[in-house]
Amino acid sequence: MTNRLNIAMAQLNQRVGDLAGNAGKMLEWRAKATDADLIVFPEQQLIGYPAEDLVLKPAFAARAAVELAKLAEATADGGPAMLVGSIFLDDGALYNGIALLDGGQIAAVRYKHELPNYGTFDEKRIFASGPLPEPMLFKGVRIGVPICEDGWLAPVSLHLKERGAELLISTNGSPYEIDKDDRRLEEVFAARVRETGLPLMFLNRVGGQDELVFDGSSFVLNADGAAAHRLPDWEEHLRMTHWTRGDDGWQCADGPKALWEDHPADIYSAMVTGLRDYVNTNGFPGVVLGMSGGIDSAICAAIAADALGPDRVWCVMLPSRYTSQSSLDDAAQCADMIGCRIDTIPISPAVGAFDAMLSGSFADRDVDITEENIQSRIRGVTLMALSNKFGHMLLTTGNKSEMSVGYATIYGDMAGGYNPIKDAYKMTVFAISEWRNAHKPRIGLGRDGPVIPDNIITKPPSAELRPDQKDSDSLPDYPVLDKMLHALVEEERSVDEVVAQGFDRDTVVRIERLLYLAEYKRRQAPPGVKLGTRNFGRDRRYPITNAFRSGR
């Protein structure tokens, strides 16, 4: 039995499916923690999180077992023991679990008991629930290891306390959501400390995985509820923590306490992180996007420059006869401020060709939205051609307000591989644009100073697909629309409930109708960074064919 422990916290990124690569990185970080007795890694660090249905492949589970055994063998050198999350096949059932690797062997394994099955999580369809776990014995210390959701609910921690646990180490794959960092520390895990009277370590990963981003923001709470450590958000970080056993139990010595980003800096960092890891992990040399002179494409270009560096961002202006000189000037100025490449490819020849090609079929029909959508689709085809020819991934730039009501052209401006502002309402886009002009993000690779011309932020939004067009011709003003959408989407309010908040009934009925009708478009939209609790795709899953309306 020992009265002192040095426990290293490895707040890491990962790559789903790269078992050998993830294992190698864990050994690299273990080598940096030579003074540690134990080094702890995030949930499922060996396989990557979330691996989704990859875990159902027998070959995947078999390879995970092989790599875990190799990691265990590495601990025979007398260095730090390791807590490593992986998957475990046991008597025909698959478990999300964690292994204590020590002395060249797998010394203990514990399975996750509480399986989340809400929002982005659907673990019950792939994993079996483990029994209420017993503490792990390490150097004579009984350590309780609640795995992610096990720590978000009370029963596992209380059981571990009853079974003699002396401290709690919670390994997590907890995706970013707005305000979640403070909620983890001040509400959820502070409650576990109060309930058990035990100190607790919360370890989370960082980085992007498809729609999800992980913000880190790991911490240690002592038994009195005070924070002993706060790790940085958005950055990989190795933190050594020093623990001593006293008359009142285990105590962690105070260490650095990072300040976590406030709004909207955290939203911007989430977008940068998600795009950076999506592009880099999938091996794209850079990104290409249509630069319209509007705020959505401008902020996407700025995010891309901060994620990848300006030299990997290629903006293309695709003017039609409806494109104003002001938009051309704004786009050019924005690209110059960001420091990225910009080219201009007029689409008028292609529009004229389509007009001539369809003149016979459209002879008895008035010009309408069809011709507007043709322009958008010509732009989509052009940008995809550049993407195919040069290998750059095409970014889409539609915000959540537009995607909610279908104010986007399928196979047109929706064409692309990733959308950094997919879960950001229009007013959020304005907020992060103003913030970026006043601040360079801590993790950003872009230029200092403003990156978006003021005129782009202040001018009325327009798709410029017909003369003098403005978004407000088709939609309520964005401050009003966004409040209605937040109630309908994030809060799942009925029409009557939204009207009770002071909105016009006919307008709310119309917006709800558009919201449901646009589901088929959203199903074909590219992935994008999840910011809130009800992003389209993982959180909010509605049928495409749907006759329900709450307003009738």
Report on this model:
It is a single chain. This protein is α/β, with parallel strands linked by helices. The chain folds into 2 domains: 4-252, Carbon-nitrogen hydrolase (Nitrilase/N-carbamoyl-D-aminoacid amidohydrolase), CATH 3.60.110; 265-473, HUPs (Rossmann fold). Helix content is 36%, strand content 18%. It contains 17 helices and 19 strands. It has a 7-stranded mixed beta sheet. It has a 6-stranded mixed beta sheet with strand order 6-7-8-9-12-13, with helices on one face. The protein is elongated.
Summarize it:
The protein is 36% helix and 18% strand. By secondary structure, the protein is an alpha/beta fold.
What proportion of the residues is helical, as a percent range?
A: 25-40%
Domain tally: 2
Q: Termini separation (Å)? A: 69 Å
Taking all residues together, what is the mean pLDDT? 94
Question: What descriptors fit this protein?
Answer:
552 residues, alpha/beta, Nitrilase/N-carbamoyl-D-aminoacid amidohydrolase, Rossmann fold, seven-stranded mixed β-sheet, 17 helices, 19 strands, 18% strand
Secondary-structure blueprint of this entry?
Elements: E1 4-11, H1 19-32, E2 38-40, H2 58-74, E3 81-90, E4 93-102, E5 105-111, E6 136-138, E7 141-144, H3 149-152, H4 154-162, E8 167-171, H5 180-196, E9 200-203, E10 206-209, E11 212-215, E12 219-221, E13 227-230, E14 237-246, E15 249-252, H6 265-281, E16 287-290, H7 295-308, E17 313-317, H8 325-338, E18 341-344, H9 348-358, H10 369-390, E19 393-394, H11 400-405, H12 426-438, H13 454-458, H14 478-490, H15 495-499, H16 505-517, H17 519-523
Parallel strand pairs: 1-2, 2-3, 7-8, 8-9, 16-17, 16-19, 17-18
Antiparallel strand pairs: 1-14, 3-4, 4-5, 6-7, 9-12, 10-11, 12-13, 14-15
